[in-house]
Amino acid sequence: MEQEQQQITKTNDFPSDDHDYLSGFGNTYESESIPGSLPRGQNSPLLCPYGLYAEQISGTSFTSPHKLNQRSWLYRIKPSVTHEPFQARFPRHDKLVSEFDKSNSYTTPTQLRWKPKPVDTVEESAPIDFVEGLYTVCGAGSSFLRHGFAIHMYTANKSMDDCAFCNADGDFLIVPQKGRLWITTECGKLQVSPGEIVVIPQGFRFAVDLPDGPSRGYVSEIFGTHFQLPDLGPIGANGLAAPRDFLVPKAWFEDGSRPGYTVVQKYGGELFVAKQDFSPFNVVAWHGNYVPYKYDLNKFCPYNTVLFDHSDPSINTVLTAPTDKPGVALLDFVIFPPRWLVAEHTFRPPYYHRNCMSEFMGLIYGGYEAKADGFLPGGASLHSCMTPHGPDTKTYEATIERGHDAGPSKITNTLAFMFESCLIPRISLCALKSPLMDNDYYQCWTGLKSHFSGEGADSKGNGV
Ligand SMILES: O=C(O)Cc1cc(O)ccc1O
Ligand SMILES: [Fe+2]
């Protein structure tokens, strides 16, 4: 059997052009790195082309309705099961949570904000890779009960060597903020730059290389469901994130012996390791609709106010992970992209509000329209269920100063985002005790003055 042997060493063969990927959202895709390696007419032939093993990965129960069902068939050199038993990883990674309760996390309605974690200086004694550098900030629910979410952040300065990561708990939506990610998956390779996002569904094995060195970013993890495009309602058939802009890797594999290769499996928030003597990236061909994918946020087509008032942020939803209740998200991924502001006689920044949903925010670059200071790229904020928040004093005053009928203005050089959930997050110990916690955050609002004049009311406050 003839087979093109691929180089095992790390090379820059990470796709740099959109055409190097398959495109579309929720399609049934197929890809073969050797012509004829994908079985035709059936999934599980007695003998697969080139002597490959057939293996299915299910992202939904076998019996999920057709429109929700997700699974892929991978044709690989050796099946994933060919490994030594899983062992608890030592030393323990004690900064990951997948079942939020009083033993591992805390609750507070206070507005929270974190400064960015420095990444340029190696602050840890040893270099750390993506898995080591991942830490949970907040979340709710349980990976075991298949309902909930976790928000993590990462800082890392080293590529993953001879190891792959597999998250058995949920899907990762990764938002790199600093440094590109070269991600090898079982379906192929993805290059993800800041300004792009990548979704790695539950169970896929992947390895992260850091071609730019020190890197930082955000991760949301959802348990028990998958991301989908939001319904567009009256917007119509087009707008926001277009399905054709989602990019899926093409099949890529490595063959040969890899003694001492490790698969690190996150299972119930704990890490387990299993040794094997070959690379898990040995899938020569695959087909299915359960796949990793990436999306460039610059391709998002925003819709917004064209006459007056400030739209709710849901207008900028890129992806949503639903609950069983219509319109109630386990996790919405929303962005605040560059756009024209044209509203007349309107307070244009975000309004003051209290939300029954909880809002975690991050900033990829630039400044955020509601905060003149303190919310920095790589930093984060959390405004939980019914916690009041809104523009800081400087933003409010500058907006009023600018006047009512400011002409069109463009918000440029900015990319903020929000993970919004109907579940009420608990805060991890490491996030709550972090030296990066901005303890003065509340002061950004304390300067807001009363502008009330009282004219037009009687002494009891009744309108006259
Ligand atoms: O709180 C935030 O900054 C996010 C947000 C932005 C907006 O434009 C409207 C509501 C909202 O929660
Ligand atoms: Fe908000």
UniProtKB/TrEMBL annotation:
Homogentisate binds at residues 368, 389. Its cofactor is Fe cation. One of its GO terms (biological process) is L-phenylalanine catabolic process. Keywords: Dioxygenase, Iron, Metal-binding, Oxidoreductase, Phenylalanine catabolism, Tyrosine catabolism. Fe cation binds at residues 353, 359, 389. Pathway: Amino-acid degradation; L-phenylalanine degradation; acetoacetate and fumarate from L-phenylalanine: step 4/6. Residues 21-297 form the Homogentisate 1,2-dioxygenase N-terminal domain. One of its GO terms (molecular function) is metal ion binding. Its EC number is 1.13.11.5. The lineage of its organism: Eukaryota, Viridiplantae, Streptophyta, Embryophyta, Tracheophyta. GO terms for cellular component: cytoplasm. Residues 1-40 are annotated as: Disordered. The active site is at 310 (proton acceptor). Belongs to the homogentisate dioxygenase family. It comes from Populus tomentosa (Chinese white poplar). This is Homogentisate 1,2-dioxygenase. Residues 1-14 have a biased composition (Polar residues). It catalyses: homogentisate + O2 = 4-maleylacetoacetate + H(+). It is an enzyme of class 1 (oxidoreductase). Residues 299-452 form the Homogentisate 1,2-dioxygenase C-terminal domain.
